From TrEMBL:
It comes from the Eukaryota. InterPro entries: Cyt_P450 (IPR001128), Cyt_P450_E_grp-I (IPR002401), Cyt_P450_sf (IPR036396). This is Cytochrome P450 6A1. Residues 479-507 are annotated as: Disordered. GO terms for molecular function: heme binding; iron ion binding; monooxygenase activity; oxidoreductase activity, acting on paired donors, with incorporation or reduction of molecular oxygen.
Length: 507
């Protein structure tokens, strides 16, 4: 009996070690099984093996993207190269032929590329859209329908009031003179205007709900992880947070829908359009998130960036201020009108046409803000040739194109590191350089008109209300902003926090 008992105890004591070995072995087998990588097909661009790890692939594509891509381009005679990231086959293209193929081939799809390599959208059930219009076509049709000129005209007074009230609250909070963070204060204004157009009126009007949903959106936007791309079956903490945030947004949106249906209350907004057309909540949420990603992550950063750039380019700051003051003087009806009252009387057409210098400044800022690479996926089921270079994009492979191949190419933009909106002035007999800021080829930016309107409104009102200068977080003057980190993956706040010191202007 004693021997049997001791034998049982010894066996039980060994179980934890045995279970651990079994779990680790099973995990290793699972990793190896899911990480088996298909070989690149004949004709694929030269393989770039610098930093290529077994199973993981080229981790530098995530940690040091700019240098990795540039080295890949220079490693290949054609300027196109191949590499693995996890088990994903990726082809990097460059040059005029690579750019033309990337942006104009109908065999390369945008949505599928970003879904995997950007990896920030909430998971959507595989059967969510069976039997319905393809989501990308439905998205395009819907965004075009919800961003018509008449929609902008109807909401213009609200856009101006939203911006004005936000800036006035900022002054009430920070004082006059005061310090403001353009990548926070203006970012929130962009969210309010954007959600008013592509989302729900209740969110735009309610500060608490607006802050709550913006926080959830930022959780989703910040959840991209190399681990999840390399091991797509692994439920990482970031993946779990992203989906929990998506579920909470779903709950908030569904609550608004149910309240409108219960009370019979209607709003003239995109959510009401979805209710009237019986769109499923999951599809409505996916649209709103997609539209926010397209606008918020770009315009939200760019609008702060352009004011920073103006602050350390006094010649351009003066030109823009004179442009805004000239519009105010032209439309003044009575001496006691405030500058903001006058700007509130402008029409959509006037906001579109009256601020050409503001438009050029934003165009140049977008050139600086567009970092990293754009993504596509070959969905044709066959190899896709890259121009006449002789390279082939294998079927099911992902494709990347570096924005700096155009925007920081001195052949197109002399002294590309200099912020100079005058480079877009028309010159007789000279074509404008290629520009990717508003999309190109098969994917022009569908929200361009709205983004330009947002930037004109916020830019004009801010310059009209304030004199300002660039400082650090303590208010110490800065002669220039630190150079932008071009190795990032998308538009992002500066790594070194900056502030604008403002004083209310008197007109």
């Amino acid at each position: 009996m004693d021997a049997l008992t001791m034998e049982s105890i010894t066996r039980f004591q060994n179980w934890p070690a045995a279970i651990s070995i079994l779990v680790l072995t099973s995990f290793a087998v699972l990793v190896i099984h899911h990480a088996r990588r298909p070989s690149f097909s004949k004709g694929a661009p030269r393989f770039f093996d610098a930093g290529n790890w077994p199973i993981i692939g080229a981790l530098r594509f995530w940690t040091d993207r700019l240098n990795f891509v540039n080295q890949g381009i220079h490693s290949s005679p054609s300027g196109n190269f191949s590499f693995y990231f996890g088990k994903n086959q990726i082809v990097g293209v460059s040059g005029p032929e690579g750019r033309k193929t990337f942006f104009e081939s109908k065999d390369l799809r945008l949505a599928e590329g970003y879904e995997v390599l950007f990896a920030t959208q909430p998971a959507i059930p595989d059967d969510a859209y069976k039997g319905e219009m393809a989501f990308d076509k439905w998205f395009q049709r819907t965004i075009i329908g919800q961003t018509r000129k008449e929609t902008f005209a109807r909401n213009l007074p609200l856009f101006i009031n939203d911006t004005r009230e936000s800036l006035e609250r900022m002054v009430a909070r920070a004082g006059n003179p005061g310090l403001m963070d353009p990548f926070d204060d203006l970012y929130k204004i962009i969210y309010q205007l954007t959600v008013r157009i592509v989302g729900a009126t209740e969110i735009a009007n309610d500060p608490k709900l607006r802050a709550k949903t913006l926080g959830l959106f930022e959780t989703i936007a910040g959840a991209s992880s190399p681990t999840r791309i390399i091991f797509p079956w692994l439920p990482t903490p970031a993946y779990i947070r992203k989906n929990l945030a998506g579920a909470r947004l779903y709950y908030e949106l569904n609550k608004l829908v149910e309240d409108r249906k219960k009370t019979g209350r209607r709003e003239n907004d995109t959510l009401q359009y979805f209710i009237d057309t019986d769109e499923p909540i999951i599809r409505s949420l996916t649209f709103i998130l997609g539209a926010l990603f397209a606008g918020q992550l770009n315009s939200g950063i760019t609008v702060g960036g352009v004011l920073i750039s103006l602050a350390w380019h006094p010649e351009w700051y003066k030109k823009v201020q004179e442009e805004v003051d000239g519009v105010i003087a032209k439309h003044r009806k009575t001496p006691d009108q405030s500058a903001i009252d006058i700007l509130s009387t402008l029409s959509i057409d006037e906001y579109t046409d009256a601020f050409p210098l503001i438009d050029l400044c934003f165009r140049e800022e977008i050139r600086f803000q567009m970092v990293g690479t754009a993504f596509r996926k070959n969905v044709s089921g066959r190899g896709v040739p890259v121009g006449n270079a002789g390279d082939i994009i294998p079927k099911d492979a992902y494709v990347i194109y570096p924005m700096d191949d155009v925007h920081f190419n001195p052949e197109y933009y002399p002294h590309p590191e200099e912020w100079d909106p005058s480079r877009y002035f028309p010159v007789e007999g000279k074509d404008q350089p290629p520009y990717l800021g508003w999309g190109t080829g098969r994917h022009p930016c569908l929200g361009m008109k709205f983004a330009k309107l947002e930037m004109s409104i916020i830019g004009a009102l801010f310059v009209a209300m304030f004199d300002y200068s660039l400082t650090d977080v303590k208010g110490n003057p800065l002669a220039a902003a630190p150079p932008k980190d071009r190795s990032g993956h998308s538009s992002e706040r500066p790594k070194t926090p900056l502030r604008l010191k403002y004083t209310l202007r008197k007109h």
